[in-house]
Amino acid sequence: MAQIGRRGGLALARRAPDLHPGAVRPAPSSSRPARRSREARLHALGEALDAVRARCDLEARRRSDPVEFVHRYVDPHDQELVAVVASALAFGNVKALRAKIEDALARIGAIGVGVARAADDPAALRGALLGWKHRVYRDEDLAGLLIGARRVQRAEGSLGQGLARELARTGSLREALSAWTAAIRREGGLDRDDGRRGGAHILPDPAKGSAVKRLMLLLRWMARPADGVDLGLWPIPPAVLLIPVDTHIHKLGRNLDLTRRNDVSWKTAEEITAALRRFDPADPVKYDFSLCHLGMLQRCPSRRDPPRCEGCGVKSVCRHWAGG
Q1: Cβ contact 241:223 at 8 Å
Q2: Domain closes at, from 208, 234, 260
Q3: What range does the domain containing 102 cover?
């Protein structure tokens, strides 16, 4: 029933409570049990993530990870350039990509100087890499990447300082990375359209919306505090980093309810990282190394799979195993 308000508007009459004399009004519904359940699950997830990280054999895992190549070098300029190369090639079969990184660095080492000095001589570098190939990449792609990165490195003092300046200018990690990678591609001639995919793919552009896992891997290696895996060389706050999302991390992220997104995109990386910030706002991507190796080791499925899931460190908080 409606009644006319003093200003001519319609106002709904209040419904009288359906209570007989002496009846007890039911208590208002409360979300406290649900909230307690969410908090308990969040606590359990945090403990599981910390346990996986604590149990990870960093030394053994590092030996099979592309970051191991960066640790072979002492000069920070060499380390930066080796990190750019190793992260750029870090996709596909681990054994194959490690062999190709090893081959490239051996060819550069044969020049007889460090990686940075070798990149100062484009002709010698191109000659050393002649015939090198990995998937869609050819020798000219890798040479262009190193030459461009070295030129930006010399102009800025270091690659890390160059990225930090872009971050301060834009206030956005995505915009800063897009400008930084564009400068490297331009200086190395990788922005030329030659009808091939290699030159454009070897250093991706975050503005296109993908998760740019290899770039995020590079940032994790260079910006996170030194811990035996990451090196802590760049003046980039770890709090602004995004987790490198590949198929392993994406599956784990969905299984742990860190994301419900179906794509491996920048937004998915943001969502997973935002979830991890609840456990460590200052360093949300610290879980990446152990989780990624866990995902590869377990070959994390998208359903209950007792043989595969046996021994998984996050099985107790996986949505496929919730409630036993």
Answers
A1: yes
A2: 234
A3: 57-234
